[in-house]
Amino acid sequence: MPEISQHEKEKEEGRVASEISAAHSALNSDTETAQDAHLVRKIDLRLLPILTLLYLLSFLDRSLPPFAQDLNLSAPAYNTSLALYFVAYVIFEVPSNIVLKRFDPRLWLPTLTLVWGIVTVCQGLVANQAGLFGIRFLLGATEAGLFPGVIYLFSVYYLRRERRARVAIFFGGAALAGAFGGILAFAIGKMEGIGGRRGWQWIFILEGLLTILISLSAYFIVPSWSYKAKFLTEPEKERLLYRLDSDTDPAHKERFQWAHVKQAFTDHLVWSYALLFHGYAFALYSLSLFMPTIITELGFQSWQAQLLTVPPNTLAALSISLTVWLSIRYDRRAVFIIIAAAVAIIGSFPPRYIVLLTASKPGAQYVGVHLAAAGIYTGNALLLSWPGENVAGQTKRAVAVAMQITFGDIGAIAGVLIYRPNLAGHEYRKPHIIAIGYLLFSIMVASHLRFWLARENRRRDALLSSKTTTSPESIHDRQRLGDHHILYRYVY
C-alpha cells in the first residue's frame, strides 16, 4: 500500500476538520425558514393545548379538600393520605416511561388520564380511612406517567432550543390549576347536601367526570411518535425528521435496549438533574397542597383562603412566562433557577420563608406567599426541561426524565409529611426553615451543574480544534455516543 505523503495527510485532516466544524455549526444553528416556523406552529397547536389541559386536570385531581372530620381522620392520617399519592408516583414513573417508549403516546397518555379520572370519582365515594389510603395510592400510580411521558414526547417533536418554552407552557398548567382550583373548590363546595353528598365529595366527582370526558377526546388529539404522526403531511414529516436529525438526536425509532437504561442510571449528570428537582419539589408540593391551610393560619376564613390562592398562582404563571423568555433570549438556565430559588427564600414559601418567618402581619405574610409562588413555580418550569435538552439518546432520555421526576418527588413525600399539625406552631416556622434548606440545596446543585457543563463545553471546543481528534467517526457515531459526542454542546 503506497505511503501517504505528509501533504496529503494534512490535507485529509483539514477536510475532516472542516466537515466536523460544518456539522457542529449545523447542529447549533438558530436559523429557521418560514416552512419550519409554520411546522412548529402546527405542532404547537396539536400538542400544547391538550397536553397542558391534561396536566392541569392532574393537578386539580390530586388536591385534597378539608374532609378529615367526615372520615374520622386524624391529622397525621390526612398527611399520610397525601404522602401515599407521591409514594406511588415515585414507584411508577420510570416503569411508565419505559412502557411509553415501547408503546405509543397516542394510546398510553389518554388511557392514563381515563383511569385516573375514574379513580378521582372514586375519591368522592370513599367512606373511611382505609378506602382513602387505597384510592390515593391508585391515583398516584395512574398519574405518574403523564408528566415524564409528555416531557419525553416533546423531545421527539421539538429541537433542543425549542423545548424549554414548551415545557414551561405545559408546566404552567400547574400554576393555572392552583388558580382555577381555588375558584372551583369554592363554587362546587356550594353543592353541599345535594344528593345527600357533602361539598368535598362533589368536588371529586365532578372533577373526575370532567377528566374522563376530556380523556376520551384526547384519544383523537394526542399524537403518536413523530416518525408516524398522522396530523402532518408527508413533506412536513420529512422536514420534521430532518430538523431533529440535524439536532444531534435522530428522530427515527430507536430500538429499545437495556444498555441505554443503564447509561441513564450511571450518568452523574442525570442524578444531578434529579437532585435539583428533589430540592425544588419539597417546596413545590408543600406550596400547592398546603397553601389554603397556611393562608387560613394567617387568620383568614377557610372560604377566603380558597379564593386567596388565586392571585399567587396567577402571579406564578406570569413569572414563568417572563423568566423563560429571558432564559431563551440569553440562552442560560442555571442562573435563572438560582435567582428563582432566592426569590422564593426571600419572599416565603407557603406563606413566608424569610418574609413569612419575619413578618408579623397577615397582609405582609400574604405578600410573601406571592413571592414564594413566583419563585417556586418558575424554578421548576426551568429545571424540568433541562434533562430533555441535555440528554441524548431516546431511551436514555426517557429514563433520565422519569428519574428526575421520581427522585424529585421523594422531596414531595418529605414535604407533605413535614407540614403536619404538630409542627404547625408559630405559623409553620420549623417546616418553613426546612424548606429554605431544601432550596439552598437546589442552589448548590444548580451551581455545580452550571460549572461542570460550561467546563465540559470548553473542553470539547478545545478537543475539536485539535488535529488529534479529527476522525470521520466523530460525525457518524452521534447516535451511539449521544450527549458524549464531541459535537454535542450542553445547555447551562
Automatic annotation (TrEMBL):
Does this entry carry the keyword Transmembrane helix? yes
Q: Which residues form the Major facilitator superfamily (MFS) profile domain?
A: 30-459
The yes or no answer to whether the keyword Membrane is present is: yes
Q: What is one cellular component GO term in this UniProt entry?
A: membrane
Locate the transmembrane regions by residue number.
Answer: 43-60, 80-100, 107-127, 133-155, 167-188, 200-222, 270-290, 310-328, 335-354, 366-386, 398-419, 431-453
List localization entries.
Answer: Membrane
- Write down the membrane topology: Multi-pass membrane protein
Q: Which UniProt keywords apply?
A: Membrane, Transmembrane, Transmembrane helix, Transport
Which Gene3D superfamilies does the record match to this protein? MFS general substrate transporter like domains (1.20.1250.20)
| An annotated Gene Ontology molecular function | transmembrane transporter activity
Q: Which InterPro entries match?
A: MFS, MFS_dom, MFS_trans_sf
Where does the UniProt entry say this protein principally localizes? membrane
Q: Which protein is depicted?
A: Major facilitator superfamily domain-containing protein
